[in-house]
Give the backbone structure.
Amino acid sequence: MNEASSGLFRFIAGLARHQVVASTLGSFGILIFMLLGGFLLARENVKKWWIWGYWISPLVYAQNAISVNEFLGDSWNKILPGSTEPLGKLVLESRGLFPEAKWYWIGGGALLGYVLLFNILYTVCLTFLKPFDSNQPTISEETLKIKQANLTGEVLEASSRGRVPSNTVTSTVDGSNDEADSNHATVNSRPVNKGMVLPFVPLSITFEDIRYSVDMPEEIRAQGVKETRLQLLKGISGSFRPGVLTALMGVSGAGKTTLMDVLAGRKTSGYIEGNITISGYPKKQETFARVSGYCEQNDIHSPNVTVYESLAFSAWLRLPADVDSSTRKMFIDEVMELVELLPLKDALVGLPGVSGLSTEQWKRLTIAVELVANPSIIFMDEPTSGLDARAAAIVMRAIRNTVDTGRTVVCTIHQPSIDIFESFDELFLMKRGGEEIYVGPLGRHSCELIKYFEAIEGVSSIKDGYNPSTWMLEVTSTMQEQITGVNFSEVYKSSELYRRNRTLIKELSTPPEGSTDLSFPTEYSQTFLTQCFACLWKQSMSYWRNPPYTAVKYFYTTVIALLFGTMFWGVGRKGNDNKQKKRKQRIVNVKFPTVLQRLPLVPICHKLTCSRLKLLYSCRDNQQDLFNAMGSMYASVIFMGVQNSGSVQPVVSVERTVFYRERAAHMYSPLPYALGQVAIELPYIFVQSLIYGVLVYAMIGFEWTAAKFFWYLFFMYFNLAYYTFYGMMMVGLTPNYNVSSVASTAFYAIWNLFSGFLIPRTRIPVWWRWFYWICPIAWTLNGLVTSQFGDVTEKFANGVRISDFVEDYFGYHHDFLWAVAVVVVALPVLFALLFGLSLKMFNFQKR
Ligand SMILES: Nc1ncnc2c1ncn2[C@@H]1O[C@H](COP(=O)(O)OP(=O)(O)O)[C@@H](O)[C@H]1O
Ligand SMILES: [Mg+2]
């Protein structure tokens, strides 16, 4: 069975080729096989148009084989008084299972067949199906033009921005001087910068003796190191000024990202020492976040919005509140032009490597998202890593354009080509261990840098045409240090350059005369309400463009509704005549409960079996129908709920990484974000419960009164809502999607057990009854059953009033319907609140 299920879900994954679709189809598979597996509905209760489903369910075979194995055994061989057949056989028949011993072999054979079948189908899917979402990265109009020109052999005019058409760059086959020159022209020949719509205050940043350390990692401590802290930055000083583009370089692991995180205030752990000033005033994180931007190494964007919407959202929440919307629009357009995103304005962002923008376009979007905040200081971590020469040139041009507007830009960069390297003004070179070894200007063709290093004894001079950035990293490598015995950080500390830098830092760290410290009247640029609106707006765009989530959910809902409707066709109608009456009568003659009470079963299972058998065969007309109707409620509450909670989790966990970035940029506080995420679900859930409610209500044939229909919808709606928010909450409480899906599944099983359907409250052992009261599904089921049957005064065939039965057996009182309603409304509110709080309190992003 285990292998067959693995095979089945493997096959489903191969068929669906999309995480959300696969998980939907998967739960769909579980649903069909469970419902028709012969346990929830016995074989004779399965409608004739569904019986094929019974025969194809692997669960049928597994259950029958394992039951035959048990119940045809010796211990079940007793023949009870008043009966002719052994007890085991009776049990099997009563559950609609086949009592013949051959089923042991049939079951085993069928399961083996399923294992083979599913795995073969899976292989077939892998072999023949193409990737689902094979959208090409969006191509801008310009690229398209170039591509066409390449095909027709046309020569394109240089565009108005004075840039060399990109095809000359790409057509240079070897990356020698030729390309370098043309690229260089690309990077540097820009039009004189235009004034931007929005003014900004040019700010410089200085830092002195920055030390950053973390608690000693376990792995190192295991090697016998005694110190409790590991120092990653060892007293670094420097300054970045407006209009100057600084390259932060060093071998990987030197501590570049660490330095940037410390300066930008993005560290969530560790110990920071040292002074940082912003234009002479000590840095305060709240104000600093408002005037700075940080383009992280990993581009993180919401996948289901367009480029323009991403920018509009960022601008809305980060520009001062007094900027009106038309100015904001103009500013966004300006920024898009600056980083050359204008042709991609309406392109969907997508997921990297799957759909939407290409890597390089993502990078430019990352830059643009920070730029629309109109920051004075911008940090960029490896903006060109992973890009080819052409894409890197485009990104570099965007960065250069930015610096030329008078902003302060610092950029870490990895293996730059000569032209990219030389488009920087200054270099901040670090070595492994977190020490600086060169802080100063590059000079024309890097002459200053070359002069500095060639002057040091033991350093071999640079060859003609060699990339100075490569050379500089080579001669300062740890290996070279060991060979030549030069300690570059000490050389730097005793150099003229170092003294010059010290003076510069002193100068810049006293506030200019007549200046005032940065201050803002409010913590965030927009009010709480605007933040809520903005978040809701973005989420609504995101949801609208996410059919794999929303449309699949509706599709699933419709199919489940039809499924339940046809499976439980008409069970809600009054006066259903019971066909199995005769057979049941026969079995009831056997005193099941007393027999079963002698069995060594755990109390819960025991009670469960007793109560179910008693009810199933007690032959009170229509009581079983009540159970069937309740079974349909129970199944839909659980399946639809779990599906909702399961499918919302990947969506929320992707958005949460975006949330971390946006919160770090001080765009909003966690609560408006959570509110937006929660609020956008509400209308979608409403439509979902409407689809489901109308279909199922009509097909099952519940009583057509406005009040009962309303209650049905009401409970379904809030049931779906709290499941969905429960899923969100679990994402909020756990570090990643995998953990959250495992953790939430663990709870479903317990909820299921104490829902009041498998074991009614009155029969749950006292010491477990408290769980019934905190079990959300129990409340929904209570509401659904009570509103439907709690006030029915008609009688079963045995003369018991339906309402009395509901009250005695399940403990549902119609008078308390309103109280139940209040609890069911409170549940989603509670989960949503916990979701918001978990976002506020926990930060699973370690930096
Ligand atoms: N939280 C941490 N705990 C332990 N070591 C860390 C931590 N963060 C970074 N490091 C180490 O510090 C060094 C510098 O990292 P980083 O700043 O990311 O380098 P890079 O210059 O490549 O950006 C690396 O050797 C890394 O392993
Ligand atoms: Mg790094």
The CA atoms of residues 486 and 677 lie 57 Å apart. Confidence is low (pLDDT under 50) at residues 156-194, 575-621. Residues 214, 217, 230, 232, 250, 252-258 surround adenosine-5'-diphosphate (ligand 1) (CB under 6 Å). The first strand starts at residue 205 and ends at 215.
